[in-house]
Amino acid sequence: MIGGYITCIVLALIIIFMGYLIHVKKKLWLIAGYQEDSFIGNKDKLAKLFGVFSYIVGIATFLLPFGLDFWGNVSGIIYAVCICIGTVVTLVWQQMINKPL
Prior knowledge:
Elements: H1 2-23, H2 43-71, H3 73-97
Helix pairs in contact: 1-2, 2-3
């Protein structure tokens, strides 16, 4: 019981820290599939997009065990669907950002 809380909290803190590194420190090499030479768009917008997405995923991961206790498996399904949809939206948005300046 308590192990699930600790696991989700530690994982959430790691995800939020990674978002901070991407968003604020502009460590774009942390983005999977990012290649400096093939990206021709605005790197600041890309860093903000993936950083904010990481913050949202981290907060949702932090709240997941509380939702599982309160609502049961429904919150886990909602979590999974929202993360999948958010990932698709983020990747589409990345392609829209990857245009010449």
